[in-house]
Design brief:
single chain; mainly alpha; 13 helices; 2 strands; cell membrane; transmembrane helix; transmembrane
């Protein structure tokens, strides 16, 4: 956009000034996010973990399930970078393969919770009234139940397969997402662009999907990031209690559980999976906090 002004001391002479174009919402969010050095380090760490998890079988230097009793509790060496466990298995290889299991549980459970929570929250916020009351009372009821114990009961009854763990975590962790999405839908459903779309014949489904839900995406992204961290932590807790992913398959949680009996013989054995769980959960939390700051609605620059 170009505007003109009269140059000081030179009547009648105009000077063109070019006003820089306004940044888009997402570009502004990226600039704000990239200035957060902790968030950038967290994002790089998580990217590295995703790559390792995706190519775990190719990256692992040895067979993670190969048992060699004569190699129990070996110290770190060139052949075994982090030593071996109580069964002579390579700890480094099992950590790599365990990353795939733990991250897969976190991501899949998060997707389930986001889908359910977004559906419940958007319907409740958009239609309001009796529908809103019923759905929010169900949400409140679910939140009143200590969901960790609910997960324990369900897994104990139906088994601790990967599928069961993912489904149970996903269907018991959607309530916060539902409340967040409902709040955004309530805020945007009365906006002028929604009224304009309704006036030209847009139906409820189109209004919700095309004009309102896109504004909830930033909040959903933040909830998704924090949801992955919670799911990984919950899977680790289940595995530590013997109700998560079962050996010989490796996950960080069951590696931590198996190593507790040998903490005096090999004190580094529980340190490795515990440290990875800690760093990964912290990275997701730092990333979620940074996204919340970067995507705060007050920094939006108009439009929809």
């Amino acid at each position: 956009m170009t505007v003109t002004s009269i140059a000081p001391g030179q009547p009648g002479r105009t000077v063109a000034r070019v006003r820089p174009p306004a940044r888009s919402f997402w570009r502004t969010a990226w600039v704000r996010f990239s200035r957060n050095h902790v968030a950038m380090v967290s994002a790089l760490f998580l990217l590295m973990m995703f790559v390792v998890a995706a190519f775990a079988t190719s990256v692992a230097p040895q067979d993670p399930n190969r048992v060699m009793i004569l190699n129990q509790h070996l110290s770190p060496s060139g052949e075994h970078l982090l030593g071996t466990d109580e069964s002579g298995r390579d700890v480094f290889s099992r950590l790599i393969v365990g990353a795939r299991a733990s991250i897969a549980v976190g991501l899949t459970a998060m997707i389930i919770s986001i889908v359910i929570g977004s559906l419940v929250g958007s319907v409740a916020g958009f239609f309001g009234g009796f529908v809103d009351t019923i759905l929010m009372r169900i949400t409140d009821g679910m939140m009143a139940i200590p969901y960790f114990f609910l997960v324990l009961i369900v897994v104990a009854v139906f088994g601790s397969s990967f599928t069961n763990i993912v489904i149970v975590i996903g269907v018991t962790s959607w309530m916060v997402v539902a409340r967040i999405v409902r709040s955004d839908v309530l805020r945007f459903r009365a906006n002028e662009f929604v009224t304009a779309a309704r006036s030209i014949g847009a139906g409820d489904g189109r209004l919700l999907v095309r004009h309102i839900l896109p504004h909830a995406v930033p909040s959903i992204l933040v909830a998704a990031t924090l949801g992955v961290a919670n799911a990984i932590l919950l899977e680790s807790a289940l595995s530590f209690l013997g109700l998560g992913i079962q050996p010989p398959a490796a996950s960080w949680g069951n590696m931590l559980s198996n190593s507790q009996a040998y903490i005096w013989d090999n004190p580094l054995l529980p340190l490795y999976p515990g440290l990875l769980i800690l760093l990964t959960v912290l990275a997701f939390n730092f990333l979620g906090d940074a996204l919340r700051d970067a995507l705060d609605p007050q920094y939006r620059e108009g439009g929809h």
